[in-house]
Design a protein that fits this description.
It contains 4 helices and no strands. The chain has 81 residues and is mainly alpha-helical. The protein has one domain. α2 packs across α3 and α3 crosses α4.
């Protein structure tokens, strides 16, 4: 579900954090995956990010639903706020 290109980008963010704290990169990982999936996150993509970062799915979902910059429904190419 996560492309190799996205995995490389996520790995670059994970490398910035101490070993064992890869879940700290969850916000950037969600942003990267969202950009590759028509600018939205589905429950499956959120779970894929959680699995890749070795964290619980609910923890990734909490981040994805708390912040406004993550879309859960289809959106247009440009967002007006």
């Amino acid at each position: 579900m996560i492309s190799n290109k996205a995995k490389k980008q996520i790995d670059a963010w994970v490398a910035k954090y101490p070993e064992g704290h890869q879940s700290s990169a969850v916000m950037e990982a969600l942003k990267i995956v969202q950009a590759e999936n028509d600018n939205r996150l589905t429950p499956d993509t959120i779970q894929a990010v959680a699995d890749y970062l070795d964290m619980q799915g609910i923890a990734a979902a909490e981040v994805a639903t708390f912040y406004e910059n993550y879309n859960h429904k289809p959106v247009g190419k440009h967002t007006i706020r």
